[in-house]
Amino acid sequence: LFPLDEAARAALSTCIEQPEQLALLKALQNSQKPCVLTWLKTDGPITSTPAAYLKLHLLSHGLTRPNSLNLDGIYAALPNIAWTSEGPMAISALPDAMLLARVEGRHLEVTSLDKFPKLTNYVVPDGVRIADSARVRLGAYLGAGTTVMHEGFVNFNAGTEGPNMVEGRISQGVFVAKGTDLGGSASTAGTLSGGGNHVITIGEDCLISANAGTGISLGDRCTIEAGLYITPGTQVSLLDEHGETVKRLKARELNGQSDLLFIRHSQTGVVQCRTNRQAIALNAQLHQHN
What we know:
The chain is an alpha/beta fold. It folds into 3 domains: 1-10 and 28-78, Alpha-Beta Plaits; 80-114, Wheat Germ Agglutinin (Isolectin 2), domain 1 (2-Layer Sandwich), CATH 3.30.60; 119-287, 3 Solenoid (UDP N-Acetylglucosamine Acyltransferase, domain 1). It has helices at 6-13, 19-29, 49-60, 74-77, 94-103, 284-287; strands at 2-3, 36-37, 81-84, 87-90, 110-114, 129-130, 140-142, 146-148, 153-154, 158-160, 164-166, 169-170, 175-176, 181-182, 187-188, 201-202, 207-208, 213-214, 223-224, 229-230, 235-239, 245-250, 260-264, 271-275. Helix 1 packs antiparallel against helix 2 (19-29). The longest helix has 12 residues, at 49-60. The relative contact order is 0.08. The mean pLDDT is 92.
């Protein structure tokens, strides 16, 4: 970490050739706030707040994909911040700031108390629609053509290849390939809580229906019926093309396989899996004009 003082900025201006980078440097020269230059020679554990923000920006700018950076130590490095309509501030300073705003007839909106800000306050991804910006954290990776509806959520170090429809939750570490649809309140298991350590990936052209979810990875062209949550230990009856049970196994044995349809028997409640012969397709009109 280097303080970006006047001498450092002058030295940088002699070795930068890109016009957009020079324009940014000029803007930094006029800054009334302290500036810090963060330079990472190796991708090691995070030991400073600027390094944490740099890695989150690398993800959200699409320069690196989820699970490609070492994010160990990020929670210790990021302070809990009050994110407000007047910018971020220390939580300890918030009561006085709110009182001063009321005295002066201003409204100070506190959008969250969190370690991670909203993505859209810092990065605007190309070709993306986000219906509720509070539902996408800085550090999310959103590929062009992604639509995140009001009940969708994308955590840091998670995201979509695009195009995708997201009406459910994409947990930390989960990456969703192109063409996949997460239905309303659908869920993907992350690794931040509950003791899980398996990183979930969702393949192309999958459908995780409304209120469904998965704790195993899916290959391409898989479907989980509405309301069905597949955990690694879920007992699954594997059906042949005639609908006969050929094997009973735990869902983890199907991890990452393609062309699977997970359903429940409507009378017995038994979870069944058979070949998925009807792969979904996104509505192109919803994603081509983002």
